[in-house]
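Give me the fold.
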Amino acid sequence: MSQASAIFNNSKLINNLKQLLMNASDCILDIYHLSNLDITIKSDNSPVTKADIAAHTLLFNGLSSLTPTIPVISEEDNESLSISGFHSTYWLIDPLDGTKEFISRNGEFTVNVALIENNKPSLGFVCVPTQKTLYWGGANYGSYKSIENSNKSKVICASYPQNPIRVVASRNHLNQATIDFIKTLGRTKLIKAGSSLKFLTIAEGKADYYPRFAPTSEWDTAAAHAILEGAGGKVNKVDGSNLSYGKLNILNPNFIARGRELIDNQVKVRQI
């Protein structure tokens, strides 16, 4: 049995993991409402706040306690990044995905936790703090959505392509390559969103495509990638092959996330 199956079939552990993400979400919101976010700039010129660090500490310690045999790799822990290539199974976390959205206070940021097995995201958890909403799932398990303080979970499903084709794109990284690709789709409706909300929009059947022709890292995509696959969607590189994880270079290549039906017969996906 895979680690993902063992976790998914352990309702107590699943509930503990979900609560851990909600706790991280609450931690982030506590800081979100402060006047001073204590912003610093990392070596890659990306911003980091005390919310990133606080959520990292909570998640890293919590996962290490709940699943002590599974290593944890986090965006905010440079030392942990060096071990990804030496383990077939590990947690990959982005404690605060969408730090720019967090700083601009538009609410479009998430907490991402993914279980990576054999270079694939087998299970994903994404919490949206400002919505008090949690998503989780994976390709072999279906995908689900719940709201804080509710005992009910809702199954979510990606939809078939609509007309016009609904394209979700990055609020901060809508570059010319992405615009050029969208033009090849014909009649479209553009939806802008931040963080991993773009994947979740497709997973809930509210969009058809998410083309990404700007830099992302594996921790940005893994958790929501798993959820999208559980909802019936796909994430592929522009050559059609699967987007994989555990590479020596943590950066993702260009990719296209999409809903329930492949529409390559309608649209020629070209290398950009």
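The first strand starts at residue 40 and ends at 41.
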